[in-house]
Design goal:
Elements (H helix, E strand, L loop, with lengths): L2 H20 L1 E6 L2 E6 H13 L1 H10 L4 E6 L4 E6 L2 E7 L12 E4 L2 E10 L2 E13 L2 E5 L15 E3 L1 H10 L5 E5 L1
Parallel strand pairs: 3-11, 9-10
Antiparallel strand pairs: 1-2, 3-4, 4-5, 6-11, 7-8, 8-9
């Protein structure tokens, strides 16, 4: 007998019995009923609990306040009013070398235009800039069209027309939640 085949059969049979004993569980996610194995549900719950940003978003959804969600994994930004999404766009966040850091923040300052400088860049007249943590900002990007791909030095790059909408909609103090 091939030992690898025997190992595979043993694991397969073990998983069969595990699934047979555990069964399936129903879960609701955003109003859609899904069927998922219990271990998958437990893993999702554990991952959510490990990210304080997920807890913060749940809290913000219980209010009527405006807030901004940035999902680095999907390169998406959603503007929310309580639990209602009001604007959703594709963005460009930081690269592996210059990551966009996760966390719960708030818009600290707003500038119609700003000059952004670093060791290897100097970009004048960056439109609709909203700083939310030190040098990290949500802002318009006129120098590229690669939205949906991480290309920034850590900021959240947005198409200029979308940046204007966000700039007009958000106030200083608006919560910004960045997560993976």
């Amino acid at each position: 007998m091939n030992s690898r085949a025997g190992q595979y059969r043993g694991r397969s049979r073990g998983r069969y019995w595990q699934w047979h004993l555990i069964g399936l569980s129903l879960i609701a996610c955003w109003g859609v009923t899904l069927i998922a194995p219990v271990p998958v549900i437990a893993q999702a719950v554990a991952q959510a609990a490990a990210q304080p940003e997920i807890q913060k978003m749940a809290e913000l959804k219980q209010t009527a306040n405006r807030w901004i969600e940035v999902n680095v994994a999907t390169q998406r930004l959603v503007a929310w009013e309580g639990a209602t999404p009001v604007y959703a766009i594709i963005v460009s966040t930081g690269t592996d070398d210059h990551p966009t850091l996760p966390g719960s923040f708030a818009v600290q300052t707003k500038h119609r235009t700003a000059r952004m400088q670093g060791d290897d860049y100097d970009v004048p007249d960056v439109p609709y800039t909203m700083y939310y943590s030190g040098g990290y900002a949500i802002h318009g990007a006129y120098w590229h069209r690669r939205f949906g791909t991480p290309v920034s030095h850590g900021c959240v790059n947005v198409a200029v027309d979308h940046a204007k909408w966000l700039y007009d909609w958000a106030a200083v103090g608006t919560p910004v939640v960045v997560h993976f």
